[in-house]
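Researcher: I'd like a candidate sequence for this fold, 665 residues long. If you have to choose between options at a position, lean toward the conservative one.
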């Protein structure tokens, strides 16, 4: 045999080896075309050695529509989590033979807590896996936080909070592993899982690349903390409906009896109350319910009426730092349903809440003045005829007065001044919301700031020295850096187990937001600001954790940084502030506008504008708070900027400049 022939044969053999490897790396089953919805996930798991197919009639097939069994799942999750089969001398189950491949995987899955016995002494290796069992297996194997997610509501009408697998189903829903059925409204817990479906589920659990879009951003699913109050049924068999209509019975979800209390989310003008019922929004008739404050105090009968003095906030709880549910302005009449300490229990437009007694005055009813000298009989003094109204000659317009000489504003001698951000702001005798009021100031009034301790500023206005809650002051430095000493909270969105929006395998929102946030922090600190970060690494503070962090660190402004994802054509920057009525709404808007404008200008981004949306982290704060969406990772142009070191610096500089601009006005 010639050298050329030998060389040619070696080349053919080597090429064949490469082809074999390539075919394995891109395995295709005869019954799983590339167009199959789970094709990519199936091949991903094949390449990891997690699953194998069947050989029938010379073809390799996967049987995607066949039920996946408990035994098959035990092997898959053990392999997918990097564990090894457990060798035992005696099987734990009468239906699993010791020494077999299956035995090792089943024993390990049981030891790790992925499974429970199917029945006493039996594992049920050939029993098809149901969707409820699947949720527990994935949560246990991939260590998803079922306890945390179990506190949230899910959109599935067939899964109540009392369901045995509720927390596991909630965990895989909020982790982007399932969205339920095709409508997204049912989970179908007892439905059998197909092999192709489980391949998708396990791929999503193992690799974030395959996960569905996370169901919440900020907040879109109602929970108890979003409630504006409570309602209590005043009759038995009160229908709870899926929509605000009693036209027919098709929308009845259930019935409640007298005394049943539900969280209230909205009061409709047409007589319906939007409530939470068995994990979903629902509606009941206002005519058969009693309003109850969020702390459980019922609004039964009106004990008296008072008048608002200036602008009076309606608070969710008896705390000036709680959510503002509305405002009474001018001399609006306020109905009092109860009194607790320094607070009146009342309501506005059906929304229960509390007002400070010190911001109201009692209504004094003057006795009628009797101008009739002989009216003791009650007879008209003109014999019953209508009295002719007197002719009133209008006085001529007075001569215009010489306008007074404008009074020069007082000189403010302190290094820092405060500009009131609300009307009717009390100056207190001491650093307490319950201390005596020394007077009030309105929005835009400037005060001298002598010192700040926690949430209270020691100030002087028109010779009166006292304390003002700094949440209602925009603190302005008269010399030096505009932000020196300002406590600014920066919130890098998402983190830890929550990657945020993603693109491909390498681009994750949580990494972009942390990078930009760190740059913003450095710039702010270089100018003397005190910067607090809700996270400094790849950790997962909950939304409430972020809100609490800002409050506990006495934050003065809050900036949450995010990136967006939608269709490939959507692009640009948008900035949000809370739609819920709050004292500092104008400050929110000013801060949002300044930051959004700077980003659009400096990074040359499409301007999607400043918008009012109740994202959890901005809704939960009274201090000026905004949420910035830098751009869209789903858009090529934006994505190139979001992943660029150069633009990370530009985004950070723009946010910094926006904050400085806010404090410069």
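Model: Candidate sequence:
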């Amino acid at each position: 045999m010639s050298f050329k022939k030998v060389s040619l044969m070696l080349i053919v053999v080597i090429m064949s080896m490469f082809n074999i490897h390539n075919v394995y790396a891109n395995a295709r089953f005869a019954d799983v075309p590339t167009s199959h919805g789970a094709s990519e996930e199936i091949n991903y798991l094949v390449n990891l050695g997690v699953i194998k197919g069947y050989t029938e009639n010379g073809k390799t097939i996967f049987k995607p529509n066949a039920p996946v069994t408990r035994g098959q799942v035990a092997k898959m999750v053990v392999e997918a989590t990097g564990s090894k089969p457990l060798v035992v001398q005696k099987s734990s189950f009468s239906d699993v033979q010791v020494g077999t491949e299956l035995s090792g995987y089943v024993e390990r899955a049981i030891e790790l807590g992925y499974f429970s016995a199917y029945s006493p002494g039996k594992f049920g290796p050939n029993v098809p896996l149901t969707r409820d069992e699947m949720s527990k297996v994935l949560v246990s194997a991939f260590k998803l936080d079922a306890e945390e997610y179990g506190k949230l509501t899910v959109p599935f009408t067939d899964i109540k909070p009392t369901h045995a697998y509720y927390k596991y189903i909630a965990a895989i829903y909020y982790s982007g592993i399932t969205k339920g059925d095709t409508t997204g409204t049912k989970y179908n817990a007892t439905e059998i899982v197909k092999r192709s479906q489980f391949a998708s589920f396990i791929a999503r659990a193992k690799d974030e690349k395959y996960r569905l879009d996370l169901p919440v951003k900020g907040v879109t699913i109602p929970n108890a903390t979003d409630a504006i109050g409570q309602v209590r049924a005043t009759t038995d068999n009160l229908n709870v409906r899926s929509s605000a209509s009693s036209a027919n019975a098709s929308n009845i979800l259930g019935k409640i009896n007298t005394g049943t209390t539900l969280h209230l989310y909205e009061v409709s003008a047409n007589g319906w109350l939007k409530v939470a019922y068995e994990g979903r929004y629902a509606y009941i008739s206002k005519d058969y319910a009693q309003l109850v404050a969020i702390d459980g105090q019922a609004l039964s009968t009106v004990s008296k009426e008072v008048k608002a003095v200036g602008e009076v906030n309606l608070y969710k709880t008896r705390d000036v730092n709680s959510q503002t549910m509305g405002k009474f302005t001018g001399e609006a009449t306020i109905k009092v349903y109860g009194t607790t300490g320094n607070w009146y229990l009342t309501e506005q437009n059906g929304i229960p809440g509390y007002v400070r007694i010190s911001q109201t005055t009692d209504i004094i009813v003057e006795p009628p003045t009797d101008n009739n000298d002989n009216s003791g009989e009650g007879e008209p003094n003109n014999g019953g005829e209508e009295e002719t109204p007197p002719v009133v000659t209008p006085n001529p317009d007075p001569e215009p007065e010489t306008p007074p000489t404008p009074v020069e504003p007082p000189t403010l001698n302190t290094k820092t001044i405060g500009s009131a951000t609300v009307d009717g702001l009390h100056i207190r005798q001491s650093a307490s919301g319950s201390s005596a009021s020394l007077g009030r100031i309105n929005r835009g009034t400037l005060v001298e700031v002598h010192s700040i301790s926690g949430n209270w500023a020691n100030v002087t206005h028109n010779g009166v020295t006292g304390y003002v809650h700094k949440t209602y002051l925009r603190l302005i430095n008269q010399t030096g850096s505009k932000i020196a000493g300002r406590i600014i909270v920066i919130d890098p969105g998402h983190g830890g187990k929550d990657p945020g929006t993603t693109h491909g395998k390498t681009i994750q929102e949580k990494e972009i937001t942390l990078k930009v946030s760190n740059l913003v922090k450095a710039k702010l600190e270089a100018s003397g600001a005190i910067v607090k970060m809700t996270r400094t690494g790849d950790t997962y503070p909950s939304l409430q954790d972020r809100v609490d962090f800002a409050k506990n660190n006495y934050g003065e402004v809050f900036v949450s940084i995010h990136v967006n994802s939608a269709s490939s054509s959507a692009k640009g920057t948008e900035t949000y502030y809370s739609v819920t009525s709050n004292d500092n709404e104008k400050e929110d808007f000013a801060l949002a506008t300044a930051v959004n404008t700077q980003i659009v200008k400096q990074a040359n981004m499409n301007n999607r504008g400043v918008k009012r949306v109740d994202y959890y982290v901005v809704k939960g704060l009274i201090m000026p708070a905004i949420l910035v969406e830098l751009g869209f990772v789903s858009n090529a142009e934006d994505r190139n900027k979001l992943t660029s070191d150069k633009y990370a610096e530009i985004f950070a500089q723009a946010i910094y400049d926006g904050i400085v601009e806010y404090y410069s006005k």
